[in-house]
Amino acid sequence: MSAQPAPLPQDDPLETLKATFGFEGFRPGQQEIVEALLAGEDVMAVMPTGAGKSLCFQVPALMRPGFAVVVSPLIALMQNQVALLQSFGAPAGMIHSGRERSENVADWKAATEGRIKLLYMSPERLATPRMQAALKKLDVSYFVIDEAHCISQWGHDFRPEYLALGQLKELRPGTPVAAFTATADEDTRADMKERLFGGQVRVFISGFDRPNLSLAIEEKSKPDDRIAELLEDRRGSQGIIYCGSRKNTENLAEKLRDKGHNAVAYHAGLPDEERAARLDRFLSEPDLVVTATIAFGMGIDKPDIRYVIHRDMPSSPEAYYQEIGRAGRDGKPAEAILLYGPSDLMFRRRMIDDGGAPEEVKRHEKRKLDILSAYCEALTCRRNLLLSYFGEVRTEPCGACDVCLDPPRTEDATADARLFLEAAIETGEVYGQAHLIDVLRGSESEKVIKARHDDLVVFARGQGRPARSWRSLVGQLFAKGFIEMRGEYRSIALTDEGRTFLNGGGSLELRRSEKRETTRALKRQQ
Ligand code: ADP
Ligand code: ZN
Fold it and tell me: Does the keyword Transport belong to this entry (predicted)?
């Protein structure tokens, strides 16, 4: 490429942001990452797609001496980013197999001569001994690994070529490595951290919040009728209603049409041309409601979807987050409403049990389901609970979820909360919630007897509270940050706050588990 050396970089990242990219300020979470990179730290950053990962490494790359090596798995991604950087006048180049050799050589030369600040390349290219030998001698400011979850077998996009990136720290011990990903899966994150950084790295998580999206849960009963009713208040605007089966999408669409709504079903069982026709209608009819399975999603990027309703429970917090994320992309108020009942939870569990996945994967999926049900039963700010699952910690209530807007009735749960925490400690903080509840409720299950947990002081001391209510309590302790769920078995362990509570004399108010109908309250607020 032919770009001249950039004008001398500013030493203030905000100035660089304004001068080069023309943006007014950093988004939440960006500045911390920029500063860490400027300070020469290793960084692992988790941000959802669209939150603005690229600027986090582009701004400091322009400011530090030398050039940053950016590893990206897809040629198309590289091309987009490099073209965009060049359009801002930021000197960037790339080396990959989709270009002429002479183009690659020109960009490489520009890098070695200090004429570019960002050099994008594929992981295969970086892994070659020749490239590694060359990079050893050059002025590399840091390495950036985009889509870093590709290094993990746990991730969905495992790329064997990424494994070689685990050696970057040996290749250039003093050179920082910055890994970026949008994956929220905890096992994948742990794996990334281990392979790329030997477990030692500062982790930044941000950008998961969608503040214009209000969140609500309703106890599920006669869902099709209820949805028709909900749509009365939302006539004229567009929404998606996710259903757990093709049959449910068809039945619901029919019911809605009967009530005079412009509704159509969408699922993978329809012929291709019919699907295309319905998608076309969705893009052109501003009041069309689509009742859909998860087949309706990929590539749906319509900015003005005003609500996403879940008739049936989704499979995981990730799926839920992704599905509700299709609403309100224009930044204007939008709603996410989930109808939730214990039978859905059971249905989802059965689907996992009956599926052909290995045991380990099934446990993994069930754990995600437990978190989603804790979200549904939350007694504190739902948004904060969801964000905490993705690793983003908030303490201020959001003010835009049903729990914040219509605070549930509470009870003094101090004694039972302590009892639960004691049960976790007495059993070594290695058991999941189901077993701990069994112990507290005095169940003589095989597992309880085998572990001799019927001999514990806490055994059967929680019989006064039904299992469902215990689960709700556990969900709330999780939401409050008193406990965390660790590792493969979601073992319940106390956090520092949990220990402080247990050792101190504080009291704890929690929400009663009871029927509520909150969406109306939410609607009234708008
Ligand atoms: P990601 O890589 O996280 O998916 P991008 O880096 O492509 O996201 O950023 C998404 C969009 O947000 C881009 O259009 C980008 O220009 C824009 N963006 C990122 N940071 C800011 C900011 N601080 N101010 C304004 N726009 C931003
Ligand atoms: Zn809230």
Answer: no
Question: What would the pLDDT profile of 51-107 be if each residue is shown by its tens digit?
Answer: 899 999 999 999 999 999 999 999 999 999 999 999 999 999 999 999 999 999 999
- Decide if 476 contacts 414 (C-beta within 8 A): no
**Residue ID of nearest Cα to ligand 1 atom 13:** 52
One-letter identity of residue 145: I
Pairing of strands 140-145, 67-71: parallel
Residue type at position 492: I
Q: CA 444 to CA 157: how far, in whole Å?
A: 43
Question: Is 0.80 topped by the overall pTM?
Answer: no
Rounded Cα gap, residues 458 and 439, in angstroms = 7
14, 16, 20, 23, best to mutate for ligand 1 pocket (most atoms within 8 Å of CB): 23
Q: What are the structure tokens assigned to 389, written together? A: 């699952």
Nearest CA to ligand 1 atom 15: 52
First-to-last alpha carbon distance for the chain, in angstroms, is 53
CA–CA separation, 459 vs 227, rounded Å? 43
Structure tokens belonging to residue 259? 């009530």
- ipTM score: 0.97
